[in-house]
Amino acid sequence: MTKTFVKRLDEIQPSQLFVSSAKLSQVMRDIDPLRPESLEPIPVKELGNCVIFTDGHTRALAAFLCGFTEVRVFWDEDELDWEAYEICVEWCQAEGICTIADLKDRVVAPGEYDMLWLKRCREMHESLEVKRNRK
Prior knowledge:
Elements: E1 4-8, E2 12-13, E3 19-20, H1 21-30, E4 42-47, E5 50-53, H2 57-65, E6 70-75, H3 82-94, E7 107-108, H4 110-134
Parallel strand pairs: 2-5, 3-7, 4-6
Antiparallel strand pairs: 1-6, 4-5
Helix pairs in contact: 1-2, 3-4
């Protein structure tokens, strides 16, 4: 079983620029604002000298919107494309997204989420593939 621990939301760097309003609505319906443990633990990983969300941005934002200052997290042990995550974190930091609270005004409709975030990520992954194939 994966060991979970509690971490302050303002100590975790997002790696995503937008959140889908549809996903957020679903999570907000499922969360019990009086029970932080009702939220599934969120995966994090160290990147350089900071801890980043590798997934679960919607759950983290829902927790923030419910007034939680901490969430249960676990160390993500999946093999990740670190170069891609570094790029995503750089995008976030360049746009002033340093904590999950910074995403509260970046909740967008699903179609907009697909265009603004998923398309950008696909293009970045394609660019990385081309770059890697040249080596």
